[in-house]
């Protein structure tokens, strides 16, 4: 990796602005407490305390998405609508998927598909997932169908895993920033909390790169949690990372897994973006490729179709774990998170079609992602906006600190709202519990050709370039 890839591509601006790190609370808060107090719905007399707390848990991502749903950009019908650069979806490959998913082999019905299935998923699908992961994760030994659970998305799996390895109010360590919806995945049903491991956005001291995750930081946070009387049961590691897009090496991952083993912590390894790496300079290594895992009974790997196959709407998530007790417990919850038989058939057909995956889908998807990434990062560079340069995932983590007058999450939120008023939906750092205000995530895979993507970025950057003038009106 080049040094550029491990830090911001351009040195972060310092200037005269305040860039002191404002530490977010280490324990996850309700998003509504931190983000949108004025818009939190009031208490409903029809709901229980739990129901009210679930209803009120509306974070910034929802607020933006609601507005977007009402006023979506559409080339022909709503050219002045909101451009969505905030949702992590790959919309570059609809043509390829449509062609494959409408082939005759996809249309299949037999009695078993119409009946209740094993709540872990049909055996034919779990076998296919095991073969798929063995191959694409480069597992040294064949992975087993009995260790696979299939559910309606990785969000459901994270929720179920947390429910069975934690008791209410227990906590799981997670480095920040992180994919924000995990907070709700863990909290809504199971009342499991996240304990943050804050990563610093400045390189310096022992940190050779920005947002550098180290075993020392994990140790430090674990110690802090213990001092506060919080029971930590697990650690969540996302690789490739959302929102940093960073790809951790196998050596780094094994170091984190060894840390977890020392304290008998479970590790949930989220590898949802494992095939979304689009430059030869970076190679992703699944933890399943290791000759041996430090603590196989406490290592649980999740992967799904939402990102790597650009099929978030299919709702497919898979879990691989050697822990049969965990599989049994999670399977008990599977009846709430099942996938229809016909969809399971389609997914199995897709995963076994290696020729389509290797010869058509993956190369073309990577090529389109690379072009889109290069376009957006080129635009960011031309605007002098620093960003983390990792050729992976569907987004770029960019440093807009120079556009907020002071380092506060209120200012960051004002900037986010300012974008929304200018019809650009982004995700801001506080939605990912970033400890320093001013970082934003740009999804670059959200238009199917460059013209639309170009419009999207141009409008975003146009807004940015006008921000100095807008400060007076928007941010005062
Ligand atoms: C890192 C990560 N984990 C889990 C999820 C949830 O994915 P799914 O669509 O499979 O529920 C997402 C979705 O953005 C994600 O980015």
Structural write-up:
The chain is of the alpha/beta class and 476 residues long. The protein folds into two domains: 3-25 and 58-96 and 358-475, Aspartate Aminotransferase, domain 1, CATH 3.90.1150; 110-356, 3-Layer(aba) Sandwich (Aspartate Aminotransferase, domain 2), CATH 3.40.640. The protein is built from 17 helices and twelve strands. The protein has helices spanning 3-6, 31-34, 49-56, 60-70, 94-101, 111-114, 123-136, 154-165, 182-187, 215-227, 250-262, 324-333, 341-352, 354-382, 409-421, 450-465, 467-475; strands at residues 83-84, 148-151, 171-176, 193-198, 232-238, 266-270, 299-304, 317-321, 395-399, 424-425, 427-428, 439-443. Helix 7 (123-136) runs parallel beside helix 13 and helix 8 crosses helix 12. The model is unreliable at 1-25, 28-35 and 467-476 (pLDDT under 50). It binds pyridoxal-5'-phosphate. The site of pyridoxal-5'-phosphate has 13 residues, from helix 8. Keywords: Pyridoxal phosphate. Residues 89-448 form the Aminotransferase class I/classII large domain. Residues 10-20, 33-49 have a biased composition (Polar residues).
